[in-house]
Each structure stands twice: as C-alpha cells, then as structure tokens.
Amino acid sequence: MVPQIEMGNGLRLSRIVHGHWRLAGWNTRGKDLLTMIGQLSEMGITTFDHADIYGDYSCEKIFGDALALDPGLRARIQIVTKCGIKLVSGKFPGRSIKTYDYSFGHIIASAERSLRNFHTDRIDLLLFHRPAPFFNPSEVAAAMEKLHKDGKVLNFGVSNFNPMQFMMLQGHTDLKLVTNQVELSPWCLEHFDNGNIDFFLKETIHPMAWSPLAGGKVFNPSGKKGSGILKELKKVAEEMGGCTIEEAVYSWLLKHPAGIIPVTGSGRIDRIRLAAAATALEMNMEQWYSIYNASRGQELP
Ligand code: NAP
Question: How far is the CA of 264 from the centre of ligand 1 (A)?
C-alpha cells in the first residue's frame, strides 16, 4: 500500500501522485477512467495532479465527469490543480498570445472553473503554475485568502518557483505554501544546484517531482548523457534484485530526505503500479550516487 506524506496544514498526499497532463491522449473516459481512479486509490495513490490548461482546458472536465459517476469517491481522493497560464485557445476567443495572469480576477475565475469541471466544492491544493515576470504578490495573496475563506481552496503551493520567488509570495500571506512542484529526475538535477533542494530541507517542504521519467526519454535516450543514465539505471536495477528501470528511478527520488513526491504521467495502470512498488524498495547510497554521477557525466569532486 502506498503510504501518505504529511504536507503541513493537516494536508496529506499520497507518496506517489498520478498526473493527468496527458489524459486527453489516453482515450480513457467515463467508466473506464473511473475504474482506473478506483484501482489507483485502492493501491494508495489517492492524489491526482491537474492544471486548468491540460489538454487545451479539457482534462479537468474529463476527470470530473468520471468522478461524478461515483459521488463517494471524492472524499477518498485529493485533487491538485494549477492556474496562472493563459493559452491561446478556441475556448477563450480574443487571446492572441500566451500570457501569465496572476490577477485577483483571473485566479478566482480559474479556480471556480476548476471546481465546476471537477463537479466538486473544494480543491485540496491549488498551485501557481509558473513564476511570472508580472506578478503582484499582495494581489495573489488576496485571491488566496478569498478562496480559502470561502472554503473553495483548502491549501496552496507553487510550481517551478525558485526559493526567492517562493519566499516573495510567502512573505505576503499567512497561508502556508505547502509545496513547490518542479522537474526532478535523474535527467534533471537543476534543483540540486539552484538552491531549491536546500530550501525545501530548511523549510521542511516536500517537493512534487514532475516528469520523473523525463517524459519517457529514459527508455529511448539520445546522446551520451541519456545513454549513460540508462546504463547505470540498468546496473542498479539488477543489483536491487532485478527491479525495473522505472522502479530504480522512483526509488532514487523517494530515497531523498526532502521527501520528494513523484508525479507519474503514464496512462497505463501496470506502469503506475511500478511507482507504487518502488515505495517498498531501498536503494543504497552508492547506487544513489552512481545514478547522480551518470547524469552529471563525472565523479564527485
Ligand atoms: P513521466 O512519467 O516522466 O512521463 C510519462 C510518459 O512516459 C508517458 O508518455 C508514458 O507513456 C511514458 N512511459 C512511461 N513508462 C514507459 C515505458 N516503460 N516505455 C515507454 N514509455 C513510457 O511524466 P510526465 O507525463 O512527463 O509528467 C507527469 C506529470 O507531471 C504530468 O501528468 C503533470 O501532472 C505533471 N507536470 C507538471 C508540470 C509543471 O510545470 N508543474 C510540467 C509537466 C508535467 P504511457 O502513457 O504509454 O505509459
């Protein structure tokens, strides 16, 4: 059974989160999707990651329509979604370029649209999707406080922020930002170097890791870096008793003391099961560093 992790504010997420960025391409709808959500929550994967914009604004509603088929299920899962990016889309005529919008009005309207899409009265966790060059933290904080006071959003966090951007927003509100969802994997070590991982450890913030399998690139690497990582993952997987490459990757993320929460992206239940299985595996320190070194292309100094 996949364990849960305490995020602060009483929010608990599953240690593995299932992401729905690619949902529109899975051709899984209605009862089939409901079955998948039910199977995942039975194995302890109870948290589902979305964004308003996924699938050209379609994924939240596909998920919500499935959820509505079993009204009892909502109480057993946590819904994470995001706002802040405005795409050029036929659904919103009049937009001519992509922008980021963190105005009070847009944050409230986006959250309310998400609630309608999910057929629910509350979002467990709303993330501000990307840092923006035009961002007024006191206006964002006012929107957070209104949504929280109205019971529409229970918790807030950010995504793709650096520590300074995180502190900038946190400095304007008493509502605790509970996470930062960033790209983290053996292919993406950026947050080990930009201060984010150190900041998470200092503040006891558990980051959510998007694209843990580098969007599938792990299996078909191009170039020296990717081939080096795959070779090392195969070796470590063998040493760990013949586990899969996916399990080795998830295990690498789960081992870290920051409490990294992998956000899986597969549409296949058998592949998501591998992330669940990894919560019971233990990688040793040498194996962890051998994967880290393979990504950096050099040994530790
Ligand atoms: P990922 O797990 O790195 O990649 C998933 C992709 O890998 C899918 O296309 C999947 O295809 C493929 N895959 C998995 N196992 C495979 C295998 N054994 N062989 C070949 N292909 C395989 O995750 P991701 O989808 O890129 O991202 C995960 C989630 O993170 C998203 O759904 C979203 O919720 C979130 N996200 C957030 C941000 C952000 O800015 N905050 C950005 C990107 C993503 P199959 O479906 O066929 O298995």
Answer: 6
